[in-house]
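Hi L.,

You mentioned the student needs an example of a multi-chain input paired with its predicted structure. This one should do, with 685 residues in total across all chains.
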Amino acid sequence: MQRFIRRLFVDRFANPILSTLEDAALVSLDGDHLAFTTDSYVIKPLKFPGGDIGKLSVCGTVNDLVVMGARPLYLSVGFILEEGLKLDLLERIVTSTAETAIIAGVQIVTGDTKVVPRGECDGVFINTSGIGVIPLGKGLSDSPFASGDAILISGTVGDHGIAVLSAREELQFQTNVDSDCAPLNDLIFSVLSVSSAVKWMRDPTRGGVAAVLSEMVESKPYGALIYEADIPVRDDVSAVCELLGFDPLHLANEGKVVMVVEADEVNHVLQLLRNHPLGRAAAIIGHITGEGAGYVHVQTAVGGVRRLQRPAGELLPRIC
Amino acid sequence: MKALSRFRDADTVHHIATEIRRLALDRPVRFMEVCGGHTAVIYRSALTDLLPEEVQLLSGPGCPVCVTGNDFIDQAVALAELPEITIATFGDLVRVPGSTRSLTDVRACGCDIQVFYSPMDALTWALKHPDRTVVFLGLGFETTACTLAATLAECVRSEIHNFRFLSSLKTMPPALRALLSSQKVAIDGFILPGHVITVTGLEVFQFIAREFSIPSVVSGFEPSDLMEALLMLCRQIKQDHAEVENQYRRVVRYTGNPQAQALIEKMFEPCDMQWRGFGAIPLSGLKLRPQFSCWDAENIPVEVEPTREHPGCRCGEVLCGIIHPSECTLFGSVCTPETPLGACMVSAEGACAAVYHFAPLSEKV
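Structure written out for the whole complex:
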């Protein structure tokens, strides 16, 4: 997909800001450092345990700004509605969107609505774009990665992926897992406001932790080693993954952040995360390495070392 | 999964590995596993890192997707293109390339392909969509055969007629006999498939010891199960002894599951079957008995393209343990999980995919 995006879009739109393909574009305007991002939400089903497409559309875009070190300020929202969509469902989604924006501290300042004939979209598609400002002196560290830098995650992995899968008809299983969908600005700024040791952040959405870590090291002069035994996973998420043959590291998360932190400061940052309600299960899961440049390796629970599989395409349950 | 945690305990696994080293085998030995589930655990846990150099592991014909030829995919694709047909399938199969196309390719053109974890879920879907004829792609070994048999029995009992089975079910003992008889590759022992033998019992695998004097051990699927099975194999080697042992005693009985065996026997009959890497193996497959022919998708008239295999694909040799995946010139260059040319690179339990995804850089060619 990355190669496809580069070939089709990046090469044609041709500018140095876009070519970095970060979660948000960093731009300067009259001395202010801004972050600007957009995302489209086509999730199915529209409602899932712990959230809905409206809540997701705010959290996803807010989090893309926050992981670049920006305080999110304003969102736009575009709704594409399928003819025949039940009005009460739409009202619940819009209410959820509004409530989430309030919780996230952002204002939805412009929007658009289109209706398409029945069958031409899955109920509702939403696009949100967002602008945030990078506070002076309180962003990410600009130090390059160094061997030994710690990799942290703010909580358990795979909750959103399993919650959404459990709500789909064709894979019938029951769990008590709710999506972790949440805006991360409060959590992240509780760290950035007192620590300058965070070098990099990403929210591990589609493709999970495996995707963001693989992208982090791709073509770089460093690698990463993570410890399977230290990755926080809920027992019920783990059980579903065992049954269906999924790797929790490949599952989507909508309320988690992965960070790279200077080795000397990792315990301080870990405690800051754990002090916050969204970060109670935060854990150190690995570190940056000089060896294995360009790849992520996993020390398995029994002590072997394997490479981290890059997620590819649709999640498919195993056969037997 | 707290109940399984003791079978994943690192100290236990290391202790068993130490016992293997203490045996100090005086020659290299090659043990073949014949279950995709074992392939996956070995690579995901990186178990080979813990073994002494003289113990080498081979992957055999244990991945049901991998041992199924292009002809089955081609037939499924042709059926998918019939307007009234919904193809119901297990997950891995949708991306396996046929002679020219995969199910994913035809799904993108509007064909109805649905992925299910269980054939019973597909039957429930069929009941909700009486206007569709659902064809379930029945691919697997004995473990899958009993779930398909149960589903077919339910179709018969409830007189559900918009459901068909396209069977590519295979049975392990004939394939292992063919592998040993061919002498294509030197094998010093087998790690036998724990879930297949949960159904079949151990007796049908006794020929491995009695006729070929090869040690074998039925193994469970946790890291300590596999490590213990390897220890048991090494002890047999050390004692110059061959028998079929059962490491997976908490699940597998010597007689297997007689009820499952009876149901398979009632609904299916043995037939000759094509295996990738082996060609046709007599009486190594299962097809619907004639009295259930109205549920047999083989009876749906459809034109299927002539079968072609990719000229450079060496999946067959990988499946027999003749070559390591990295010895195929297409591996990792032309043939990748994103652009697979053979089934072994697609399935989550295929040897090529396992090496591509999991082998540490130091092992990659």
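You could point out the following to them. Chain B touches chain A through 50 residues (CB under 8 Å). The first strand of chain B starts at residue 29 and ends at 33.

Best wishes,
N.
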